[in-house]
Amino acid sequence: MVKSLVTVCVSACLLLSLNACTQDKDANTTLTDTTEQSHTLRIAAAANLSDVLPHIIDSYQADNSSSAQNISGISDIEVTYASSGKLYAQIKAGAPYDIFLSANQDFPAKLADENSADVTSKERKLTKPFTYTRGQLALYSVSKPLNDFTPTSLGDVFTSADFTQDSKVAIANPDLAPYGASAKAYLQSQNMYDKLNAQKSLIQSENIGQAFQYAYTGSVDYGFVAQSQLVAIKAKPEQFITLLPASYPAILQDGIIINNTAPAADFTDYLRSKAGQQHFLQVGYLAVQ
């Protein structure tokens, strides 16, 4: 009888011990599953977004943390800023980005086309490109006051007494930069591009950042720059004219999801939402529908 009781007790202890181990294992599994569900979102972003994207991310994370239905699964957001061409090359080389936000429409379109053509590639789940903002073009000068001119009389700037044979106008490379292409198209529509080019007044920079630097430092008399650059430095009203959006080809910036997950889709939805677009409006971009 005593021996039977001891056997029962030992068996019961072993059973309790096994149950405890099972529960610990289940708890560890649950913890692992929760950890695996969290996701670090990796974004490749054009350099011109370095002023606005951090604010959008902060707003997005604040909205998610205060929401009772936070299902994004994003634990952290890491952003790499560089030229769109450099980021495109990194993605082609296999860089582990989830989202690519380009300064133009070309690179996302190339990625989408190349992915469609490569039927053997199953590693990435690219979506179709989407437009997330629209840039504005402005004429900027630190040495020639522009308060006597308006967007509709901008052509008068280049025929005024202040504009001489020695005057210089900076534009970004039209073959590489969307802002440069739009500036060239605007000048052509005003019948000024060939004239300025012939008298060697046009100074072509590598990109819109360099065009801005030329004008900001006074190395040129005028520069066709991004409105967002002027907002960032709080330029004085007499230093610039914002061109009418209808007077030049739209400067559209596209993005593409490289790794089509729920977190990536959730963030890009926010980027194009009314809340996300408001951030772009505040820093000199135009909202997109």
From TrEMBL:
Residues 1-22 form the signal peptide. Coiled coil: none annotated. Molybdate binds at residues 84, 208. One of its GO terms (biological process) is molybdate ion transport. It comes from the Bacteria. Keywords: Metal-binding, Molybdenum, Signal. GO terms for molecular function: metal ion binding; molybdate ion binding. InterPro entries: ModA (IPR005950), ModA/WtpA (IPR050682). Belongs to the bacterial solute-binding protein ModA family. This is Molybdenum ABC transporter, substrate-binding protein ModA. It comes from Psychrobacter nivimaris.
